[in-house]
Amino acid sequence: MQKYTFELYFDFSGYCDMAIGVALLFNIHLPINFNSPYKSLDIQEFWRRWHITLGKFLKDYIYIPLGGNRQGKARTYINLMTTFIIGGIWHGAGWTFVFWGFLHGLALVVHRFWTSFGIKMNKILAWFITFNFVNFVWIFFRAKEFDDAIKVINGMAGLSGVVVPTFFARFAFFGSAGY
Fold this sequence. Notes:
Blueprint: H1 2-25, H2 43-49, H3 52-63, H4 73-91, H5 95-115, H6 123-142, H7 146-156, H8 166-169
Helix pairs in contact: 3-4, 4-5, 5-6, 6-7
């Protein structure tokens, strides 16, 4: 799955960099759209660094008109969830995109709740959790159907069985090697 993580990053980042460069040839200044999002220490920071222009659009035209964070914690959480579910729908009409948006919205709600206690997490652990969460959720972004996502998750968890290459099968600890 990490291969897809980096494919997606380099695809989006690359075309944004090319668009910015070509626009500069015509003296047009486009905004930066990616800022090393995989260095993020939490999901909120990730969304401030990943697809910055889409995040600004969602904030300005969905989150803030819904009330943003001005109507209490519960309403803020509902607004975050709504915004990210709509963001999932924006990416595609499939249920996997909706679920992808739901998971990101849920992560933002959990993050806000966590930070309300003022507890700081170790930076390495925070990065590890954020990066792996984003990796995991990309499964739903890429999958055409939930069955596809479940197959990938089962494979990642080793629930699809383990296949040992024939080269290694001759070693006794991998089973009957035929010595």
